[in-house]
Amino acid sequence: MRITEKVIAASVFAMLAGCSLFSSKETKNLPAPLVELKGGVTPKTVWKYSLGKAGTAVFTPALVGDSLYVADAGGALVRLNAATGKEQWRVKTGADLTAGVGSDGEVTVVGGVKGVILAFDASGKQLWKAQASSEVLSSPVVGGGMVIVRSVDNLITAYDAKTGAKRWNVTRTTPALTLRNAPGMVINGPNVYVAQPGGKLLALVLATGLQRFEVVVGEPRGATELERVTDIAGTPVILEKDVCAVSYQGRVACYDAITGAPHWSKPASSDVGVAVDQRFVFVSDDKGEVAAYSRENGSNAWKNDKLAYRRLSTPVSYGRAVAVGDYQGYIHLLSREDGALLGRAATDGSPIQSDPVIAGTNLIFQTQSGTVTALAVE
């Protein structure tokens, strides 16, 4: 089989996997109804901003300083003031987009159809354009003078942030069957951490692409290819010396961010990412349960099943609460200490699939219909 055929086959398998996995949940398990909350907290809407729809892609806002960068499938790229929602600039990229946003404040990058990579300067002027080896679903990341892009054929490529010149690339094999999702990447100091299909977390030297370490977060198990799908979900999170991640049909785990030495791991299954704060690691699992694990040793602190099968987003630690979005565009606040439901807010009724962002006292979500909402709790 030629490489091009393998990539096409992998994409088809991925789409089939996504359909089968999520349709089974929808038909066999009805989403939990929303219960009335008495005496809880009421999130206040600070501002809203309207973009175009995300389509089948997922666009996560990028926060740099006091600026928030957002994009949509129709090709709009916008810089907002994160505190007020005021538009600082809005440009048409000239391409339908499939991934974004990555930014360090000086260079902002998005991925377009057929793998086009577009970079813009701080004023919204296009800097350069490059071509990835295949479709890009994961948000590019920018840092240390580099732009890192991962395409669906699992080729990881580094570009010079100012010129777009290719600096290095790393190839990893892709399992026959994968989730059609957007495994995330994060730059921290001299390293870039890349979530991988097959349950692996890869750490590379940012400047050269050399491998620091590779660890197995979720080990494939089961008799069928579907049962053996164990892709890392969402974006790895780094806090101090820990890097934590979760896989589908695998585990949630934390490792030493420098050496890859394991700290702890627990069985878990999620198709979105983790949140980490000083005390806990939070996971929204594929059944709609939200769980908190001790960051120190992985012991289970609490679990909430009141949002079962509501197709939850990646959670985020927000003050005394944990916030998570759902398939109807609701944002739920749970107690950080015991998981009890504290409050909720509605957005536009469309799913929330992107990662939430904390900007000062603002809690920011982007829906699939393109509403960017900033909330605050008084």
Question: Which segments are poorly predicted (pLDDT under 50) over 5 or more consecutive residues?
Answer: 1-27
Average pLDDT metric = 90
Main pleated-sheet profile: 4 strands, antiparallel
| Share of helical residues | under 10%
Structural class: mainly beta
Shape: globular
What percentage of amino acids are in beta strands?
35-45%
| Total strands | 32
CA radius of gyration = 19 Å
> Spatial order of the strands in the main sheet?
1-32-31-30
Q: What separation lies between the terminal Cα atoms?
A: 59 Å
Compute the number of helices.
Answer: 1
Topology, element by element:
Blueprint: H1 3-28, E1 44-50, E2 62-64, E3 67-71, E4 76-81, E5 87-92, E6 97-103, E7 108-112, E8 116-120, E9 126-131, E10 141-143, E11 146-150, E12 155-160, E13 166-171, E14 185-188, E15 191-195, E16 200-205, E17 211-216, E18 232-239, E19 242-247, E20 250-256, E21 262-268, E22 274-276, E23 280-284, E24 290-294, E25 300-304, E26 316-318, E27 321-325, E28 331-335, E29 341-345, E30 357-359, E31 362-366, E32 371-376
Antiparallel strand pairs: 1-32, 2-3, 3-4, 4-5, 6-7, 7-8, 8-9, 10-11, 11-12, 12-13, 14-15, 15-16, 16-17, 18-19, 19-20, 20-21, 22-23, 23-24, 24-25, 26-27, 27-28, 28-29, 30-31, 31-32
